[in-house]
Design goal:
- The protein is mainly α.
- The chain has 27 helices and ten strands.
- The relative contact order is 0.13.
Length: 720
């Protein structure tokens, strides 16, 4: 395994002074690189909450007690006449899976108490207190990858205006960090960026940089910025392409970093918004109703050993630069190479060196969006699954805090539990089939006066099932009860009756989709273990609809598997078939469920009825309202895609600005020329017109040519 990336901050200023900040001469330039396998010198954590040991004992000890009780009951269910091999397997799987849900249950119960008591402020950050003054500068980073420019610019402008309204704008700079590979999207980004600066007047405050090579994806994008500009900013706020945040929240986060020099990261709770499809509205309702309780729970017992979710968080640049360089994992993809799920690792490495990591659930004003369909969620989950499984290689690293290791194990478990549930179900059916069709050996080879009767305690099994379902569903009831104690949120969610109906509707739909997700994630785990890489694809944000042929292709295996399970269950007995019906219905109806939940019209119809509604739809916060308004204004401009070369040829001012944003020109002898650039330049020289060049160049060649001054000169000549 290689050492982490070189996180030394450099004064590397790109060409074009208009598009780069003026960095101070005394910016720190020497921040050490830490080895993943060498335990760093720890610093004292100054912000550890009181009673943290007792809190963790309650959560972990409570989960252990529940698991012991459930394991004992399951043992009594199966051990009527001794455990067979299959019964032992079922018992082991049940104990592991119940421990997983019991741990979440106790944490949620702690979150319920914390939420009802209005705790969760942490670090003295009180959203109701007067807005603090700031003394340092904060960089706001927006990494993008082949996104619709209207969306990202609308969100960023809303954040800019919201911060401006606080009177603290002088303490913030904004960076659009593009990893876009599509040339048409790239030039559209630049045009949208220039328009954003004109609308806001942020010429010395909003900056844009595109990397020609998107090495290490988002993590590499952030680390590249740290090397170039990080020395000028004590902290950086990392956004996602669909992020919107209020200026009030951002100012309070920056103030918290200033007042607590031992804190390395402050994470907010992003609220899912703007969902229109049924699936997206399910996700945002669940996140808005259950999310605060979950966040309060983990903040209560994580304390200064919190986690990082990759966006809508503020990070101390010194801590990140010195400690959060990601290792390159040995071996081939999908386990080798750079780490996909970088956020957990970055938090663990910073905490290893003694920097505190905090979740502040009381901070509102932090928003994101959800994938619009089950299919889009599965595509994103496939990448996250691969990234989380990579964490197994980081677990043995020296010096990690045990809670950080627990975070990594939790990330791995969130995907490993899917195939475990599947094996648990299949093993249960196998036991029933064995009892039905395989001749039992009532008298074993060992001497016994009594026969061995294969049986399970059916009555006790019902109570074990009720216990398991209760552990799964009680947290939802608690979250709804906590909602009722907050008047504004209760009214914004449709009131007591509508919010309860929405909770039931979400639970039913989620229950039907759960076996589909279980099988999808199980297939993802298997494909990763057999060496298939997930790749990196841009996310769809609005439309979740898919052609029926593609839905059939994706979910036909789920339906076939469900039919086979149903046949096996029915072959045993009608009672087993009925017992498994929730799982069977979801799998058999996977195709219509996928199409139904991706429906935008159905989702909006439920919204009109006041169902699956969230408070942000009832009383939309100003920053979110402004972002949506700007997006509605800007989106129509993108309805007709603009070809990059024709766009640059027709707009000389855009072409000049594009030239100034390119790296300084280099001669052929300075470095080996890229093959795509070489071929592209030859084609450009041979082209008689811009239309001919557009037709002849491949997408990779076009991007290479537009990123080179010689290609741009030839384009200008063709334009003339």
């Amino acid at each position: 395994m290689d050492l982490p990336l070189d996180s030394v901050i450099e004064h590397t200023k790109p060409a074009g002074a208009d598009f780069a900040p003026a960095l101070p001469a005394d910016a720190p330039l020497d921040m050490p690189v830490q080895s993943l396998w060498r335990k760093p010198q720890r610093r004292a954590v100054e912000t550890r909450p009181a009673g943290l040991f007792l809190r963790r004992l309650i959560v972990i000890g409570g989960a252990a007690v529940m698991t012991y009780f459930a394991a004992q009951e399951m043992f009594l269910v199966l051990n009527v006449a001794g455990l067979t091999l299959l019964e032992s397997l079922v018992l082991g799987l049940y104990v592991a899976l119940f421990a997983w849900i019991a741990f979440s249950f106790i944490s949620s119960c702690a979150g319920f108490v914390s939420l009802v008591l209005r705790n969760g402020k942490g670090l003295g950050i009180d959203p109701a207190a007067p807005l603090p003054e700031l003394a340092t500068s904060t960089a706001i980073l927006l990494p993008v990858y082949n996104e619709a420019p209207a969306r990202i610019m609308a969100g960023l402008q809303s954040i800019y205006e919201s911060i401006k309204s606080t009177g603290r704008l002088d303490h913030f700079h904004f960076f659009i960090l593009s990893d876009t590979t599509d040339a048409d999207a790239w030039i559209a980004e630049e045009a949208a960026y220039l328009a954003l600066r004109e609308r806001t007047g942020g010429h010395g405050r909003i900056f844009y940089r595109r990397r020609p090579k998107n090495t290490e994806r988002k993590a590499g994008n952030i680390s590249d910025w740290v090397r170039r500009f990080g020395g000028a900013y004590p902290q950086m706020l990392v956004l996602d392409a669909d992020s919107v945040m209020s200026g009030d929240t951002i100012v309070r986060m920056a103030s918290g970093m200033e007042r607590h020099p031992g804190v390395g990261l402050i994470q907010t709770l992003p609220i899912i918004v703007n969902g229109s499809s049924l699936f997206a509205r399910m996700q945002q309702f669940a996140g808005r109703i259950y999310g605060p309780m979950i966040a309060h729970g983990i903040a209560w017992w994580h304390g200064s050993e919190g986690n990082y979710w990759g966006h809508n968080a503020i990070i101390r640049t010194e801590a990140f630069a010195a400690q959060a360089g990601l290792p390159h994992l040995g071996g081939r993809k999908p386990f080798g190479g750079h780490i996909l799920s970088h956020d957990f690792i970055e938090a663990a490495l910073m905490r290893r060196a003694g920097w505190a990591i905090h979740m502040i659930p009381a901070l509102s004003g932090s928003y994101e969006e959800s994938p619009p369909s089950l299919t889009d969620l599965a595509i994103r989950d496939r990448r996250w699954c691969q990234g989380n499984l990579q964490h197994a290689a980081v677990l043995p690293a020296r010096g990690l805090h045990w809670v950080s290791r627990l975070h990594l194990l939790t990330g791995i478990g969130s995907y490993i539990t899917a195939p475990l549930w599947l094996i648990f179900i299949l093993t249960g059916i196998a036991i029933s089939l064995q009892a039905q069709f395989v001749r039992p050996e009532y008298f074993t080879s060992e001497f016994s006066l009594f026969p061995v009767w294969p049986a399970q305690d059916a009555e006790r099994a019902i109570w074990v099932f009720v216990l398991t379902m209760s552990v799964l569903f009680i947290p939802k009831i608690l979250a709804w009860l906590a909602l009722l104690t907050r008047g504004a949120d209760r009214r914004g969610s449709g009131g007591m009756i509508r919010s309860f109906v929405s909770m039931v509707l979400e639970s039913v739909l989620a229950g039907l989709l759960a076996p589909v997700t279980m099988l999808t994630q199980s297939m993802a785990v298997v494909s990763i273990l057999t060496g298939r890489d997930s790749g990196w694809n841009p996310q769809r944000r609005d439309d979740g609809s898919l052609p029926f042929r593609e839905v059939l292709h994706r979910y036909g295996p789920h339906t076939l598997f469900g039919l086979l399970l149903a046949a096996g269950a029915y072959a045993v007995s009608v009672s087993l078939f009925l017992w498994m019906s929730p799982v069977l219905i979801g799998l058999v109806l996977a195709i219509p469920l996928a199409m139904l939940t991706s429906s935008r019209s159905l989702g909006l119809s439920l919204r009109k009825l006041g169902l699956l509604r969230i408070p942000e739809e009832y009383a939309t916060p100003e920053e979110l309202r402004r972002a949506n308004e700007l997006y509605r204004q800007l989106a129509p401009l993108e309805d007709v895609p603009t070809e990059a070369m024709e766009h640059l040829a027709a707009d000389s001012s855009l072409r000049d600005a594009h030239r100034r944003m390119l790296p300084p020109p280099r001669s052929m002898g300075e470095r080996p020329i890229d093959a795509d650039l070489l071929v592209g330049l030859v084609k450009m020289e041979e082209a008689a017109s811009i239309e001919a060049a557009v037709k002849d160049l491949t997408p990779r060649e076009k991007a290479a040519v537009l990123g080179d001054h010689r290609g741009l000169e030839r384009l200008a000549a063709l334009a003339r």
